[in-house]
Design a protein that fits this description.
The complex is a heterodimer of chains A (about 240) and B (about 190). Chain A has about 240 residues and is mostly helical. Chain A is built from 11 helices and no strands. With about 190 residues, chain B is an all-alpha fold. The chains are: A mainly alpha (about 240), B mainly alpha (about 190).
Chain lengths: ~240, ~190
């Protein structure tokens, strides 16, 4: 009776003798597998390993990225032109008929505008050599604007003769000036606006007004808003 | 004494002594595994829950304070892992039949007499089967008390009940087990 009273006492924290029951439970031979033991002990060891070596991977990746960006930037600054000109940078060439009409147009504009010798007018220079340039690329490809004074009154027969005498690239230019015009526009679009504007001013001073205006339109197309800003700054 | 040793081992592990953890693990691995196996009632999940439990012990080493008994802390974690497992699997403890103890597997029992081993193993198997027939709350209270070494007050705290309820569950569990085990039940 006394025992039952003790059992029901809420302050009695051990109402049952647990040892006989524990011995009976302990007779169960169940145990975790060796693999489980290995995994847990390995995790315990790993948890104590200091994580000092983990910072270098993201740090080295960031350093490599920074180096690559700096190299590209340096190359761009050094050449004054984009490092890579790919097909996507060059607008699609017009159809052959369009090229022909453009060629004749170019020839007429050459005839119409009196030109000075190249020594007098600084011609816009094409970008420096670049490893990924996919367009025809030979030393100093003649651009329309930089055409020498001999260009005026170039008949088709003369053009054929000139093409025979020139380098292959020059010959190709003579036959298909429109093709080079496309490339030139693409290159021109990346030119420094200050230098470009200075060249336009030279053209204007030389009396080549139409050419200067055309260049001005191109400059505005390549650098939208730059012209108005530049004029405001001058004022 | 054992409790102090466990607490000291845990503190030493938290300070960076991996040997202390190995000893702590060796001392507690079997009773904890049996506790989880009997509580979960799902042989397939026992290893997962057991591993999760020790992962939490490892992860919580810095937070461990020897204010409570180590075993209380350990079995509380095991209990929470079981609860999480039940929540994930969408059911309470299963009622699968546990494997009967193999006589050979009981070779590390204190007894060296094969007959005693066989009898003890058979009794243990019957106890396991009887445990699975108990209501979940009674089984939990019984296992926390006997295997986990928790006091009634600690069981009440862990299960979110009053001390009287915890004690009643414990007493009912023992009464039912004695009825089911008959003469194999431990004498008072």
């Amino acid at each position: 009776m006394r025992r039952r009273t003790e059992d029901m006492d809420p302050k009695n924290d051990e109402p049952i003798d647990r040892e006989p029951w524990r011995r009976l439970l302990a007779a169960d031979a169940g145990a975790p597998s060796k693999d489980t033991d290995r995994l847990i002990l390995a995790e315990a060891r790993r948890a104590l390993t200091p994580h000092t070596g983990r910072w270098w991977l993201p740090a080295s990746l960031a350093a490599s990225l920074l180096l690559a960006v700096l190299l590209v930037q340096w190359q761009l600054e050094d050449s004054g032109a984009p490092a890579f000109v790919t097909e996507s940078d060059v607008p699609p060439a017009p159809a052959s008929s369009a090229i022909d009409s453009e060629a004749s147009g170019a020839a007429s504009s050459i005839e119409a505008v009196p030109r000075k010798a190249p020594a007098e007018i600084p011609a816009p220079m094409p970008p420096g050599p670049s490893p990924a340039v996919e367009v025809p690329h030979t030393p100093s490809p003649p651009l329309v604007d930089a055409a020498p004074a001999a260009a005026p009154s170039l008949s088709s027969a003369d053009a054929e003769r000139a093409a025979d005498a020139a380098t292959p690239a020059q010959a190709e230019f003579t036959r298909e000036p429109g093709k080079f015009q496309v490339v030139k526009e693409s290159v021109a679009a990346r030119r420094n606006p200050e230098e470009w504007f200075a060249e336009i001013e030279v053209l204007r001073a030389a009396g080549r007004i139409e050419e200067a205006e055309a260049e001005l339109v191109r400059l505005e197309a390549a650098w939208p808003g730059w012209l108005s800003r530049h004029r405001q700054e001058k004022q | 004494m054992e409790e102090q040793a466990d607490a000291q081992l845990m503190l030493r592990y938290a300070a960076g002594d991996v040997r202390a953890f190995e000893e702590l693990y060796e001392r507690n691995r079997r009773p904890l595994w049996r506790f989880i196996k009997r509580l979960a009632g799902d042989a397939a999940a026992t290893d997962d829950v057991f591993q999760e439990c020790w992962s939490r012990v490892i992860g919580g080493r810095a937070r461990y304070r020897p204010t409570a008994r180590f075993r209380t802390w350990l079995y509380r974690i095991a209990y929470n892992c079981c609860m999480d497992h039940w929540r994930r699997s969408g059911r309470r403890a299963g009622h699968e039949t546990m494997d009967d103890d193999a006589i050979t597997a009981a070779a590390d029992s204190e007894s060296s007499n094969p007959l005693e081993i066989a009898v003890a193993s058979e009794k243990s198997g019957r106890l396991n089967a009887a445990l699975l027939r108990l209501p979940d709350e009674q089984r939990l209270a019984f296992l926390l008390y006997v295997e986990g070494g928790l006091t009634v007050a600690e069981i009440a705290q862990e299960t979110g009940t009053g001390a009287e309820t915890a004690k009643s569950r414990l007493r009912y569990a023992v009464t039912h087990l004695k009825e089911m085990l008959g003469a194999d039940a431990p004498a008072d």
